[in-house]
Write a structure and sequence with these properties.
Oligomer: single chain
Radius of gyration: 16 Å
Shape: globular
Order of helices and strands: EHEEEHEEHEHEHHEH
Distance between the termini: 14 Å
CATH class: Alpha Beta
Strand content: 15-25%
Helix content: 40-55%
CATH topology: Rossmann fold
């Protein structure tokens, strides 16, 4: 059985960037593709970015117990990890890297215990997080306000994670994440 590396963070904290860095390293990681009930964006590929399911398909998969974890993040907007995704990655001899919300991260850790490590990517401050979201130029003012409010709630979960990694300087955070994961895999 491989190991599970779970990265969680508020939107804009740098989680996806750190995930990409780890995937490009020599750590033998494979990204766990999440399922989502939202509409696919033009630049996204089904099965690579997400497994895109309709709301009805997602709800049916919940009823059939196909998810390791799932959340209704916003009204009728579901995200989750299919159990089959873990099996797929372990069958090719790799460790699983997750980019999930805080509740999903805690749920996966509770299931896999010592085979999983949870890393919470902490922004230097809520103000810096909001600045990063604005600099993306991809969200409306209303979406930014929603994300900042959600981030404040998510920060309260940080004490439930094995490691809190502050992403103040991206290069330092990436290097530290690498060392943490390498140490975990080798123990």
């Amino acid at each position: 059985m491989g190991k599970l590396i779970i990265l969680s963070a508020p939107s804009g904290a740098g989680k996806t960037t750190i995930c990409k860095y780890l995937l490009a390293s020599d750590l033998d990681l494979e990204f766990s593709v999440s399922a989502a009930s939202r509409i696919k964006r033009d630049n996204e590929t089904d099965g690579k970015d997400y497994y895109f399911l309709s709301v009805d398909e997602f709800k049916k998969s919940i009823e059939q117990n196909k998810f390791l974890e799932w959340q209704e993040v916003y009204k009728n907007q579901f995200y989750g990890t299919l159990k089959s995704e873990i099996d797929r990655i372990w069958s090719i001899g790799k460790h699983v890297l997750f980019d999930v919300d805080v509740a999903g991260g805690v749920n996966i850790k509770n299931i896999y215990g010592d085979h999983a490590i949870t890393i919470f990517i902490m922004p230097p401050s809520v103000d810096e997080l909001e600045k990063r979201l604005r600099n993306r130029c991809s969200d409306s003012q209303e979406q930014i306000e929603k994300r900042v409010a959600k981030a404040k709630q998510e920060l309260e979960f940080s004490n439930q994670f094995d490691i809190i990694l502050v992403n103040d300087v991206l290069d330092d955070a990436q290097n530290e994440a690498y060392k943490i994961v390498q140490n975990f895999i080798n123990t």
